[in-house]
Amino acid sequence: MSQPMIHILNGPNLNLLGSREPDIYGHDSLDDIARDCAALGATLGVQCALMQTNHEGELVGMIQSARDQAQGIIINPAAYTHTSVAILDALSAFDGPVIEVHLSNIHKREAFRHHSYVSARADAVIAGCGALGYELALRQMARMLGRDHRA
């Protein structure tokens, strides 16, 4: 049996992790997160493909591609969380589980960050755990896909 593929999609400015506002977003880079997810995925019996873009349409395209390539999506849409109906619509066309991740606790931040369009589609939401949120999301996704090895 082949390993399920999980697409880990990241929105604008997440390419600056580790150097952008580390007091809010932490010191881990997106490369650190990708490496950690790949290692954890191997122990959980899933494959991970981490992608990032600063462009809304490109993120929509990544979600649409996942329809044919992935069994689950973990997404940190960053600022598009609060603005993009297009991303919500693309996620709604995806048949597998979706987990929304935020490094910071968006509910403790500015009022405009309290609403998430993505949450209307997400099967789970993880916020405020920093880079650990990706690990938690990956463990939950493995369980949702029947790959619970309790690694």
Tally of separate helices: 5
Question: In one word, what is the shape?
Answer: globular
Structural class: alpha/beta
- Termini, distance in Å? 19 Å
Global Rg: 14 Å
What number of domains? 1
- Return the CATH topology: Rossmann fold
Q: How many strand segments?
A: 5
Helix content: 25-40%
Poorly predicted runs are none
Spatial sequence of strands, sheet with the most strands: 2-1-3-4-5
Task: State the CATH architecture.
Answer: 3-Layer(aba) Sandwich
CATH class: Alpha Beta
Largest sheet: 5 strands, parallel
What is the string of helix and strand elements? EHHEHEHEEH
Strand content: 15-25%
| Mean pLDDT over the residues | 90
Q: Tell me the name of the CATH homologous superfamily.
A: Dehydroquinase, class II
How is this structure best described in words?
The structure is a single chain. The protein has one domain: Rossmann fold (3-Layer(aba) Sandwich). It has 151 residues and is an alpha/beta fold. The model has no long low-confidence stretch (mean pLDDT 90). The two termini are 19 Å apart. It has a five-stranded parallel beta sheet, with helices on both faces. It contains five helices and five strands.
Short description:
The chain is an alpha/beta fold and 151 residues long. It is built from five helices and five strands. The protein is globular, with a radius of gyration of 14 Å.
Task: List strands and helices in order, with pairings.
Elements: E1 5-10, H1 22-25, H2 30-44, E2 47-52, H3 56-69, E3 72-76, H4 85-92, E4 98-102, E5 124-127, H5 132-144
Parallel strand pairs: 1-2, 1-3, 3-4, 4-5
Helix pairs in contact: 2-5, 3-4
